[in-house]
Amino acid sequence: MNIKEIIKYFKSVGTERNRQGQARFGIDISRSLGVSQPEIRSKAKEIKRNLSEKDRHGLALKLWDLGYRETMLLAAMIDVPELVTKKQMDKWVRDFNSWDVCDTTCGDLLDKTSFAVEKALEYANSEKEFVKRTGFVLMAWLSVHNKELSNKIFVQFLKIIKNSADDERNFVKKAVNWALRQIGKSRNVYLYKEALKVADDLRGREGKTERWVGSNAHNELVTMEKKLSIQGD
After folding, report:
1. Are residues 109 and 181 in the same domain?
2. The domain spanning residue 129 has which CATH number?
3. Residue 232 has pLDDT above 90, yes or no
4. 210: buried, middle or exposed (CB in 10 Å: 19+, 13-18, 0-12)?
């Protein structure tokens, strides 16, 4: 399977209706071929069945550089975490210009690298919107996917979340909120309580963005606790 075949396939299944649907969800469609996520995942599964890890990695690098939404998503889906370098990760993160590419790349690939925690901390301090978003998206995905990480790491994440919840930019504040909710929901009772403390602190602040982050997270965490109590009775 080569690049030309993949592009030809994507153009054959992409539609303008899909593109407009993506736009309604806030996805950047300036470089979209209008292909749905299920179609892209299906192609990724086919590639992973037929190519070695080394060949997949090489193909992923080429697909990413094409710059289409679909080729970037496919690259993230087929690449091999163990073969990703920090230099590659930094380059890809700088290329993010849409939340779906950012979130999928983090959840399918980047959070599985050996330096994901290090990069989450680094990116969360960036001034660039999508780079900063990446830091918190990585925290959210690490909460879900990496069961080996210690509570100490997530307490460190919570401190950064608490200090970053005043960023009014839409793609940042939503990622900060997501990370806070996931740490509270996905780990253990201790981190649930720590996340709830952060949420309660934020919803009591004067800043509108901080209050939104805290209130939204508080409501979801408390609702989850109530559901668990009911199920346990």
Report:
1. no
2. 1.25.10.10
3. no
4. buried
